[in-house]
Design a protein that fits this description.
Blueprint (H helix, E strand, L loop, with lengths): L7 E3 L13 E6 L5 E5 L5 E3 L1 E3 L2 H4 L3 H4 L1 E2 H4 L1 E2 L7 H7 L1 H10 L4 E6 L5 H4 L7 E7 L2 H7 L5 E4 L11 E7 L8 H11 E12 L4 H6 L13 E2 L2 H10 L2 E15 H11 L4 H5 L8 E16 L6
Parallel strand pairs: 8-9, 8-11, 9-10, 11-12
Antiparallel strand pairs: 1-5, 2-3, 3-4, 4-13, 6-7, 12-15, 14-15
Length: about 300
């Protein structure tokens, strides 16, 4: 695995417990300059050098075409993923609909095209807002989301308090996960909820596949959580875990599935083209494991 050119930050403390370098060990060599480190105090896994030039690694092409070679992530055609995105994160939408008794506001971090929030357009009591830094994604999201803030979450400011804050495949990208979760807590009303999806590095598939695990992307994935470490960082950030599960399947359209399989096994490319007439069908597809978390912000008692 070759290191991508770009601007990197060298990590100085564990993102979960704050332990210094003397308490880390190399868990896996990723490339010539990056290692996956393990904190011996809390067990957290993270890259020792993390990419900081987000404008370069998340260009418009991140959503328009696959850029696996150039950036270590991205999509063939994100515009096809509306239905699959809503199905994949139904654990969150179902919970929101179930627990909303009056008016409520949902904020999504890294909303991409806004597909998850689109399903609330018909829910009159639920208003939607989002934070997204990619210009192309913002352009699409503004068509379906109540309000979209074009800014990195680190720079986002508001006096509002939200009932629900959701962020899917987001926490593994940030540079300081604890600071991110604490900021989310500041934006939540007391006793309201954060909902998270992030790769689960505690699965057998990660242990078996190592660097070939589907969620290893040194250029864009900085943090790798397990049930133990996601629980610790949330509890240390003043949250109570309501639900914590691992999902081994994602929802994807046939188009993306056959593209991925063709890339993994080039000799089968012509075979997978036979299924192109099914491209818009959405089916469950095995992945390497994702955490699905619902956490409640604890009310801070006045002293």
């Amino acid at each position: 695995m070759v290191k991508m050119p770009g601007n990197y930050k060298t990590v100085k403390k564990c993102g979960v417990c704050g332990a210094p370098k003397t308490r880390w060990q190399i868990y896996m060599k990723l490339n010539d300059e990056q290692n996956l480190m393990k904190c011996t105090d809390c067990g957290f896994l993270f890259n020792n050098r993390q990419r900081i030039d987000f404008d370069v690694i998340y260009p418009d092409s991140y959503f328009e075409k696959d850029n696996e070679v150039g950036h270590g992530g991205g999509f063939y055609c994100y515009g096809l993923l509306c239905k699959s995105q809503q199905m994949m994160y139904s654990f969150a939408s179902d919970f929101i609909k179930k627990t909303t008794t009056g008016k409520a506001t949902v904020l999504e971090l890294g909303c991409s095209f806004g597909f998850f929030l689109e399903q609330f357009k018909t829910e009159g009591a639920i208003s939607t807002e989002a934070v997204e830094m990619n210009k192309l994604a913002v352009k699409h999201a503004k068509k379906i989301v109540g309000r979209v803030y074009e800014t990195p979450f680190d720079s986002f400011t508001t006096r509002k308090k939200y009932d629900y804050i959701v962020f899917f495949e987001f926490l593994e990208h940030v540079l300081e996960p604890k600071k991110t979760l604490e900021k989310v807590g500041e934006l939540l009303k007391d006793d309201r909820y954060a909902m998270i999806a992030t790769p689960d590095a505690g699965t057998i598939w990660f242990k078996l596949l190592g660097k070939r695990w589907s969620s290893i992307h040194p250029a864009v994935h900085n943090q790798y959580f397990t049930k133990k470490t996601i629980r610790k960082i949330l509890e240390d950030s003043n949250y109570e875990i309501i639900s914590l599960k691992t999902s081994h399947f994602l929802w994807a359209d046939i188009y993306h599935i056959r593209k991925r399989l063709s890339e993994m096994f080039p000799s089968t490319k012509l075979f997978w083209r036979l299924f192109s007439f099914l491209d818009h069908k959405v089916i469950p597809f095995f992945n390497g494991g994702d955490l699905r978390v619902i956490a409640r912000k604890k009310a801070i008692s006045p002293r």
